[in-house]
Each structure stands twice: as structure tokens, then as C-alpha cells.
Design brief:
This protein is α/β, with parallel strands linked by helices. The protein is 54% helix and 10% strand. Helix 7 links the parallel strand 3 and strand 4.
Length: 248
Amino acid sequence: MTICELFKQYLEHLFHGKRCESRELIVAAQDRGISAAKLLKMVVWPAMEQIEKLYRHNHIPRITERIATRINRMIADMLQGMLAREPKSGRRMVVVCGDGDTAELGAQIVADLFEAKGWSVWFPGSGVPNDELVQFLGKIRPDVLCIHGMHPAGVPNVRKLIDLVHEIGIFQQMQVMVTGGVFNRAEGLAGEINADLCAPSICDALRTVEDHPVRVPKPDVPEPGRRRKRKPKLPAGTLRRLKLSASR
């Protein structure tokens, strides 16, 4: 059975709510020598995107989307424990995401696969206020902040977060990478909010950070015909606390 055939059959199981059959299909694929990482990248992730797309375009009802997403997450959880792991590389990543089960699942797969590649990964998920997240980043000092699966309504807050990160000098080496969600549907949006990297899929994300290991700062030049926006002010005491934590 090819990966394409496996994917088609897996989707059928998901849309019919067949938990046992979905699990047995993936286990059988592993028995044939398909790695857990490949199954996450080539089956579980595309299934997640297909479920989200079909629901967004009203091709499947809400109950089908809910059941399929939960089975897909069960399979992702199962595969996470079977990933082959590389030695620790010393590189660090923090992964946050938009609201909803689909965004959470995509971010979880990002965290799992980068961790298997030797990265140390922290995964706060969704709903963390920007000031708390910035303080956490100041303690962890990650190489990459990955923001996955945002909805259009969440984009302004992501822009505020990136502006805040760029305002603070201790984050000069950290890259901000956006993946999935609205960033896959709105061309040029990643650049508009000043993200350093953009990756449509998990395969692209893994490849992108290897191809761009060092952040290249963008010039702070206003767009033609637009006034330069003032930088957001930091909450009182935030910058001092971050610099103190960075110096420890």
C-alpha cells in the first residue's frame, strides 16, 4: 500500500468515526516499515488540514469534524511515543497556537517532531497573555518561537507580540516562525506582521529552520504612503525583569 492509498483509507476511517480501524491501519503501516515521523508528516498532518478545510467550506458537519479530529489526535498521541529520537542539539523552541483543537493538534505535532530532532521544546499552547509569554521567552531564551494555526481574529495580537519581541533587545537572535492557519491562506501576511520565517506545513517547518539557522533582522522602514507606527510601550517593569533574568 502506497502512502497515498494509506492516506485515502485513513481519511475514510476518520470520517466514519472508526477509532479501532484507524489505529489498526496505522499500526499495520508501522509493521511494514513506515516510521512514526513519516506517518505524522505524511498522514496525520495532511488529514488534519483536510478535515479543517472540508469543515471550513461546509462540506462536512460539525459532528464529523469533531469526531475525525479527536481520532486523529489519538493517533498523533500514539505515534509521539514511537518517534526515533536524535541526540540533544542544544537548540530551543517555544510553540504557541491559536484557539481550537485543530490548531492545538498541529502545534503538538510541531513540538513532537522538533523534539525528536533533538530540540528542547516548550509548548504552552493557546490563550497565554503576551506579557506572560514574553517573560517566559526571556527565561527560556529559545532559538525559535513558533506560532501555529492562528485564525484571522488572532492576527492583530500576533502582530503586537512580534512588535513587543522586537522591541526588547535580548531577543535579537530569536526567530519567529508562523505556520498553518490563516498564514497558509493569506499570501504575504507573514511578512506583513514581521515574522522571520513562514512554513505552510510541518515538513516545510523542519526544513526552513535548517535552511535559515540565523535571524536576519529586517530594516525598520515604513511602507510607502504610510506613517511609521509607534512601538508599543512595555508594561511597567517588564523590560527590567527580562534583562535581569537574561543576565542570570
